[in-house]
Specification:
Oligomer: single chain
Radius of gyration: 16 Å
Shape: globular
Strand content: under 5%
Number of strands: 0
Distance between the termini: 48 Å
Order of helices and strands: HHHHHHHH
Structural class: mainly alpha
């Protein structure tokens, strides 16, 4: 039976996103995601990451737009419903990473698309495709943190290009989670903090 995102984990993400919205500091989606992934009690690998990507993108986009908290809350609820059915292990078993799907979920929520939409439907596919292509540039095994970073790096410029949203620019990323990952690829991961040390 597939492992689906845990309700308690998604509750933690919701509360953290709404707290950031209430504080009102404009942040990019990568910084939001780093804060979300640092929440105590969230595991290294878990299908909650499939929701974390659209949650981070929506939070950053609403912060940039100066939206009220209620609007973000409503869109988080929709994104959560759409992400809740994406099982763990889909990257290896079905060949599409849930983090990339999360980018598409962001687009579908922001643009209010449905399977019957004449406008915006293709944008959702493009967001997913660009994120998935970036994820596919790094070989496995799985690392939920790595794929979140890769999905967001690809999604941020595409969001600005293809929608009316702005979720910020991706900062330089140095992973702070690698020591908790027994399968970490270290030097083969673009975000491993040891990379580039000799050049500094």
């Amino acid at each position: 039976m597939p492992v689906l995102p845990d309700t308690a984990h998604m509750d933690l993400i919701d509360r953290a996103c709404l707290k950031l919205a209430e504080e009102g500091t404009v942040l990019d989606a990568v910084t939001v995601a780093q804060q979300l992934m640092s929440i105590p009690g969230l595991p290294m690998h878990c299908p909650y990451h499939h929701y974390l990507v659209p949650a981070a993108l929506l939070t950053a986009a609403h912060l940039h737009a100066g939206s009220d908290v209620q609007k973000l809350s409503a869109q988080l609820k929709t994104a959560r419903e759409r992400a809740s059915g994406i099982p763990g292990g889909i990257c290896g078993y079905q060949g599409v990473c849930g983090a990339a799907i999360g980018a598409g979920i962001f687009a579908s929520v922001w643009l209010k698309t449905t399977p019957m939409s004449n406008k915006g439907w293709a944008v959702c596919q493009k967001l997913t495709a660009r994120s998935l292509e970036a994820i596919a540039e790094v070989e496995g095994p799985r690392c939920c943190k790595r794929v979140v970073f890769l999905a967001l790096q690809a999604a941020l410029p595409a969001i600005r290009e293809l929608t009316d949203a702005d979720a910020g620019d991706a900062p330089e990323i140095r992973c702070s989670f690698w020591e908790g990952n027994r399968e970490c690829r270290r030097k083969s991961c673009p975000f491993w903090p040891g990379n580039g040390e000799a050049d500094k």
